[in-house]
Specification:
The protein is α/β, with parallel strands linked by helices. Helix content is 36%, strand content 12%.
């Protein structure tokens, strides 16, 4: 190649590198992470360039800083310290506020980072999902094999209709593209304090209409209640201990009542709901400051205390259930709460533990709700009030806490 050719090639390469460098600089203006657009109509796919610009370390820093500021703000409000409140609100606004927190959380929970906690939930719900898949397949097979005139000649329709799709309420949803999306098998309602895109309702769970609201505002898709409630990395966002307890108690008010009539479908082999939940027409068919990065690329599972064999999983009842995800340090390194302490709290509300899994960063658990469980707990002398009490003294621990008050003494 001639000297002129080499010179032209070098200039072109230099210009290309310069162009790429300017592009990278523009992606993170002044070193500040990009914010989510306030437009609710912006598709989630438009966020991909921004999401890819946040490293795991930056994600952790943003989430941790946001929780620290929220915790300090809650304390200032409790003390009615107006000067401190204004200062902290200004700091939150300067750091991007809830929009930046949502972006960091979305990046951490992205499938690319291995942080989609809904995949764990789907695995634990596998018996219910497979029952619905087989039920629909069987229904389609029967419909295809039956002559069109068979019903007209007095033939009976299938005795067992396919199970209803799993109704899932995802609280604190950041994405509509997670593992819960299974057409005809699941029906997912997603809410968050601030919607980050289409398909996510902007709502506060603590004021969200109850399924049994007399005005019908709590109905969804013509029915009341949900089979599954997902509370993934939401409880730790609540700034005070009492508010966390109130949120756990409130989850018990959102489950479908039809599970009281659950029966074993011999064709499917699992406990499933066969169109027995109440219809909407009234008729019966019978803050913490710990590392909270959701990047689960290194899934060093530490404990799996309630792991069952496949046979046992197939035969037990799962619904209705609560899926709870917390940063691992909130349970394993707190002064005021332990996994056993949390289990006692949830038992007092009517929950029974089904599954648990702890990775290096997160603690996942699944809990079945049954009002009778609370009655049994009380009859056995179990307590229903859990105050703030030091359980694990020592330095180096965090102050994450959940307080459950007596609901009759508001």
């Amino acid at each position: 190649m001639s000297g002129v050719g080499k010179s032209s090639s070098n200039k072109a390469s230099s210009a290309l590198r310069s162009s790429k460098a300017r592009s990278r600089d523009k992606a993170l203006t002044s070193g500040r992470p990009p914010l989510l657009s306030s437009s609710k109509s912006k598709p989630a796919s438009a966020l991909n360039p921004q999401r890819s610009s946040l490293s795991s370390k930056r994600t952790r820093t943003l989430i941790r800083a946001h929780h620290v500021l929220q915790k300090r703000l809650a304390r200032a409000r409790a003390e009615n310290d107006m000067e401190q409140i204004q200062d902290l609100e200004a700091q939150l606004a300067a750091s991007g506020g809830l929009e930046t927190y949502q972006l960091a959380s979305t990046v951490g929970q992205s499938a690319e980072r291995g942080g989609d906690s809904s995949r764990v939930l789907v695995d634990w719900l596998r018996p219910e999902i497979e029952a619905r898949r087989r039920g629909r397949k069987k229904d389609s097979t029967l419909a295809a094999s039956s002559p069109p005139s068979s019903l007209a000649h007095g033939a009976s329709p299938p005795l067992t209709p396919p199970p209803l799709p799993l109704r899932i309420l995802e609280i604190g949803a950041l994405s509509t593209t997670n593992a819960l999306n299974m057409p005809r098998l699941t029906s997912v309602r997603r809410i968050d304090l601030r919607s980050s895109g289409p398909g996510i309702e902007e709502a506060d769970f603590m004021t969200f209409p109850l399924p049994d609201s007399p005005d019908g505002s709590g109905e969804w898709e013509g029915r009341r209640g949900y089979d599954v409630i997902s509370l993934s990395l939401v409880l730790n966002y609540v700034p005070d201990a009492r508010g966390r307890g109130d949120m756990l108690r409130r989850t018990t008010m959102f489950f479908s009542r039809g599970h009281e009539h659950e029966q074993v479908d011999e064709d499917f082999g699992e406990h499933v709901v066969m169109h027995t939940e109440p219809r909407s027409d009234g008729q019966q068919d019978n803050g913490t400051d710990e590392d909270e990065d959701e990047d689960e690329g290194e899934q060093a599972t530490q404990r799996h205390p309630r792991k069952r064999g496949d046979d046992q999983r197939q035969s037990r009842r799962l619904l209705p259930c609560l899926f709870l995800v917390l940063p691992a340090p909130t349970l394993l390194n707190s002064r005021y709460i332990t996994p056993d302490h949390l289990a006692d709290m949830l038992s007092s509300l009517g929950y029974s533990d089904l599954e648990a899994k702890t990775t290096r960063k997160l603690h996942y658990s699944l809990w079945r709700f049954d009002p009778k469980r609370r009655d049994e707990w009380i009859a056995q002398g179990g307590k229903t009030v859990f105050k703030k009490k030091e359980l694990n003294p020592g330095s180096g621990r965090n102050n994450f806490c959940i307080v459950l008050d007596d609901p009759d003494k508001g």
